[in-house]
Design brief:
Layout: E1 3-8, H1 16-23, E2 29-36, E3 43-51, H2 54-64, E4 68-69, E5 72-73, E6 75-78
Antiparallel strand pairs: 1-3, 1-6, 2-3, 4-5
Length: 123
């Protein structure tokens, strides 16, 4: 059965081919991926390598953890299942603060220091 490994503290220049070359000596590689920012396509500094054999994966963990790859000492561990973070809500109105000093009317602070402007024209 295959085992997926987390590889952390990667140099931003490290490629998937580099990971494949480093891990190839431990066994058959099922997949190798460097995680990238979706907007900039720059590496986030970590990736995953999936090896076909559990024993090969354990050897890779033991021998590659702390080893330098592209000038950085990497961390190699068994990858953990990603936890479900639940639905993400980007509707900013749900994140309003009622603590004041964030603008708005006199009851919540705001630019006039919490004082209502006088509408009395007798001044």
């Amino acid at each position: 059965m295959s085992k997926k490994l987390y590889v952390g503290n990667l140099n931003y220049a490290t490629t998937e081919d580099t990971l494949k070359n480093v891990f190839a000596s431990y066994g058959e590689i099922v997949s190798a991926v460097v995680i990238k920012d979706r907007d900039t396509q720059q590496s986030k500094g970590f990736g995953f390598v999936e090896l076909a054999d559990d024993a090969a994966a354990e050897r890779a963990i033991a021998e590659l953890g702390g080893r330098e790859i592209d000038g950085r000492r990497v961390r190699v561990n068994v990858a953990e299942e990603r936890q479900n973070r639940g639905p993400r809500n980007f509707n900013r109105r749900d994140f309003r603060s009622d603590r004041g000093a964030s603008g708005g009317d006199f009851r919540r602070g705001g630019r006039d220091g919490g004082f209502a402007p006088s509408h009395d024209s007798s001044y």
